[in-house]
Request: fold
Amino acid sequence: MTKSIFITGGSSGIGLSTAREFKKNGYRVGICGRNQQKLDALKGEFEVFNVDVVEREKLQYAIEKFAEGGLDIVFANAGVSHKEKTKIPDFEDCRKIIDININGVLNTFEPAVSIFLKQGHGHLIATSSVAGFNGHPGVGAYGAAKSFTMKLCETFQIDLRRSGIKTICVVPGFIDTPLTQKNNHSMPLIGSSEAIATKIYQAVIKDRANVYYPRTFATLVRALSLLPRGIYRKFMSLERFNYSSKEKAEFFFDKSSLSKETQELQKEKKTFDSPCVSICDYEMVGDEKICQTCKLISTEKSAWKETTDLKVKNKIAKKVMQRRL
Ligand SMILES: NC(=O)c1ccc[n+]([C@@H]2O[C@H](COP(=O)([O-])OP(=O)(O)OC[C@H]3O[C@@H](n4cnc5c(N)ncnc54)[C@H](OP(=O)(O)O)[C@@H]3O)[C@@H](O)[C@H]2O)c1
Reply:
């Protein structure tokens, strides 16, 4: 019989690449997300469900409906990050993260466990993050939620194995997806969603408990959790780890260092349609203007958009870091 996997947050990034990886390997694949347009575009490839993982009963219904054709794996992958890193917590944003990244995992696992217990087998997979190893500046609720997922998976690996239920915890470092494309800080050793999807598939085949990818970065961040906490706190209190993009922009840029052209534009009170241009400088890369702080690009002064070119992003982030030092 064809094997089946249900993936929350399967319409983008890691979830979408994983859906394609399992499909390629002969699985029947169901995905859920909230954006109907994204789901419509994927209708031909997968069984799609427009469900918010926060809505427990609707998600239970979708998983049970999909399971009528069999269910071997659920992948609780849907997740969001903070709107931006801030020193002063945005509690509303924190609650949203807890709802989606914690309750979303429970809401996904609950109906699946009940199906798996009856059939005597099944795989639970969830996406945690290296952010779950330590308290990271500016992203408290995200790290706490990912730590929750990591510990929940470890417990299930102990408690449920004898009932035939295997659990895999996916622990990504930086992965190039729409989630990270909005980041304005450097993302060392960033990996691809296709590569982590292959690792997830292999973990199922090879009966592994955890997927760490990119492994070197995960090991480095994990090593930080072994430091005496006082040393860790001092290290992470360095200004370079503490910023929101606005705080960072104010910290980096002294208006007198702005290019002549920008200073002229400011004098004339002409502003670009960019959230940060009043305090940021930009550089030319080819015929594109690139804002050095928030990585917006423009070929015309009035049309700013986010760059998707990772190399350009990393180059700018590196420059910004150098300016700070
Ligand atoms: N990218 C990284 O570097 C990285 C690192 C560590 C961990 N992670 C984790 O990996 C997972 C996937 O992230 P990604 O990078 O692939 O991000 P992504 O490209 O933004 O994809 C997130 C997916 O989750 C869905 N989603 C978000 N909130 C949802 C909700 N309430 N209900 C249902 N679906 C929801 C989104 O679809 P809709 O918007 O249509 O709902 C989308 O399909 C997340 O849990 C994230 O925290 C990512």
Notes: The chain is about 45% helix and 20% strand. The pocket of NAP is lined by residues 8-9, 11-15, 32-35, 38, 52-54, 77-81, 100, 104, 127, 129, 172, 174-175, 177-180 (CB under 6 Å). The radius of gyration is 22 Å.
